[in-house]
Specification:
Elements lengths: L3 H62 L44
């Protein structure tokens, strides 16, 4: 049977174990918080700025040169069965300026 002294010793070592475990968890949380703040957020910002810059360059190119001419390639814009929405020819996210139908662009701009 365990004496009082052994029970106290066992309890105190358990408390120390819990303290060490909590400190390690706090250190891990602190490390990941710092990584998020000083690495992840700046990288997200850099990527967003780059994407905006490239999109603006693409818009300028389209405005200057216009859209590419329609070429009726036989392997593109195949419609084996109609889409289940609207008239069955246009895709769900159809854009009149950028997406050609099998017969050509819808409107000239």
């Amino acid at each position: 049977m365990a004496t009082l002294r052994q029970a106290v010793r066992r309890f105190s070592s358990y408390v120390e174990h819990v303290k060490v475990k909590e400190e390690a968890a706090d250190a891990g949380i602190s490390m990941w918080a710092k990584i998020s703040m000083f690495v992840a957020l700046p990288m997200i910002t850099i990527c967003a700025v780059n994407a905006i810059k490239l999109e603006n360059a693409h818009k300028e190119h389209i405005e200057h040169h216009g859209r590419p001419p329609f070429v009726p390639y036989s392997h593109l814009r195949l419609r084996n069965k109609p889409y289940p929405w609207k008239d069955g020819v246009r895709s769900l996210f159809h854009n009149k300026f950028h997406n050609a139908l099998p017969t050509g662009y819808e409107e000239e701009q």
